[in-house]
Amino acid sequence: MAEQTALSSCGQRVSVTAVTAHPEEIQHVRRQANERLRQWGHPKQVRQVVAQGISELLTNVHKHVGHGAPCTLTLTERPEGVLVEVHDDSPRMAVPAEVAWDAETGRGLILLQAMVAALRSEPAPTGKVVSFLVTRLPEEEPDDAWAAGPA
């Protein structure tokens, strides 16, 4: 897992991480993304949704593309929030499945779609890119407010 951060030509901060689809690596990738977004000043609510989405997309790469499949995670800071993209080598598009409300599997993309501003799966020159946009809410509290309330 190697990360590179930079400014895009539009002045947006970008972090690109090469990942292999191993279940044990997902937690490390989530922590790394959380730390990067914390450094960029994103509130905990945004970071939590991003972490949940990263888990879903990387788990899907593992399940549908293959154990240890190479992929790339890109975080791009935008004025409206954070764009998360996962690129993999499979041309098979990620589509939210129609499953029963009480199904134990297959609901991840549906749940993610309900939490984000946009969820997309698009062909890429080598495989596909699955992306989601997490926007800031106007009423978001500062990070330290989460630790101050009663349990």
Secondary structure category: alpha+beta
Query: What is the β-strand count?
Result: 6
In the predicted model, the low-confidence regions spanning at least 5 consecutive residues are none
Q: What is the approximate shape? A: globular
Beta-strand percent range: 25-35%
Order of helix and strand elements from N to C terminus: EEHHEEHEEH
Taking the sheet with the most strands, its summary is: 6 strands, antiparallel
Task: Indicate the radius of gyration in whole angstroms.
Answer: 16 Å
Strand order of the largest sheet: 1-2-3-4-6-5
Helix content: 25-40%
The total of helices stands at 4
Mean pLDDT: 87
Keywords summarizing the entry:
151 residues, alpha+beta
Overview of the structural elements:
The protein has four helices and six strands; from the N terminus they run E-E-H-H-E-E-H-E-E-H. Strand 5 and strand 6 form a beta hairpin. The protein is α+β, with helices and mostly antiparallel strands.
The gist of it:
With 151 residues, this protein is an alpha+beta fold. It has helices spanning 23-39, 44-65, 108-115, 145-148; strands at residues 2-7, 13-20, 70-78, 81-88, 118-124, 127-135. The protein has a six-stranded antiparallel β-sheet with strand order 1-2-3-4-6-5.
